[in-house]
Structure prediction request, 299 residues.
Amino acid sequence: MNFKDLPNYHTFTQIEQIHKGWSDDQKYYIENTYGEKLLLRISDITEFERKKSEYNSLCELVKKNIPMSVPKEFGICNDGKNVYMLLTWIEGEDAEKIIPTLPVQKQYELGLKAGQILKQIHSISSPPTQEDWALYFNKKINRKIEGYKNCGIHLEGEDRFFTYIDEHRHLLVNRIQSLHHGDYHIGNMIITPEGELSIIDFNRLDNGDPWEEFNRIVWCASCSKYFASGRIDGYFNHDVPYLFWQLLALYISSNTLSSIYWAIPFGKSELETMINQFQDVLDWYDQMSNPIPKWYESV
Prediction:
C-alpha cells in the first residue's frame, strides 16, 4: 500500500495495521508529529460513492455529539486505486471484555447510555427516495428463509421461526425509516479510560426501520443481560411499547435463520457459535411463544 500521496503522510510517525474485525476495509493505527492518534481506513476505489456518503453521514452524526471517531479527511489515494478516510482514534478497551466484569448497576447504566446514543443516531431521517420498508424487508426475509432451507443444515425448532415470521410480517407495514449504524452491538463499542461508552465501526451505515437496528442485541444479551436491558430502556426512556417486542422478535427470527448459512464458509467454530445462538434465541422467547425475551429486566 502506497501512503505517500496522502495529504499529511509526511507527519506520520507510526503506521500499524489493524487485523481485528470483519470489515473489508484495511485499517491502520496512526500517530503523527502533532501527537495525534488516528484511524486510517482504506477501501477499494469502486467504493468511492458509498464511502463518500458514509463520510458525510459521519459528519452529521458528530453534530449530534455522538461519542465516536471524528472524521477528519476523505479522499483518493494509492495512485487512484483506493479511497481513504482518516478519523480520530478512540482510546480504551473492548466493551464486550470490560462490561461483564462491572457491577450489575454499572452494566445497566452503560446499556442506558448505549440506548440513548442509538436514539440520537436514529434522529437522522432516511432520504425520501428510500424503498418502502415492508416491500424491502419482506423480500429480504424471503431470501433468508430460502438461504436457510437450501444450506443443508436443518435444526430442531426451525418451524417455530417460520411460523412466527409468517404470523407477524404484517407489522412491517408503514414503518418509518432512519439512518442506521448498521452493526450496533457490544462488539462495536469501547469503554474509554474514563469509563465512558464510545461507538466504533460505522462502515455499515444504512437506512431502515429504527427498531430493526436492535436485531444484533443478541450479542449484547449473550454478554450481559443487564447491558442489553439497559439499552432498550435507554432508547425508550423506560416506556417500551409491546409492538417493539413483536417486531424485534421478527427481526431476530429472520437474522437467526440467515446466521446459520452465513457461518458455513467460516468453518466449524463459527457455525457452532451460530447454532448455539439459534438455540439460545428459542429459549429466550419460549420457543417463539412470548415476544419479550427472558433476559430482559429493568434494574
Summary: The mean pLDDT is 96. The radius of gyration is 20 Å. The chain has two domains: 9-88, 93-284. Strands lie at 12-18, 26-32, 37-44, 71-77, 82-88, 93-94, 178-180, 189-191, 197-199, 206-208.
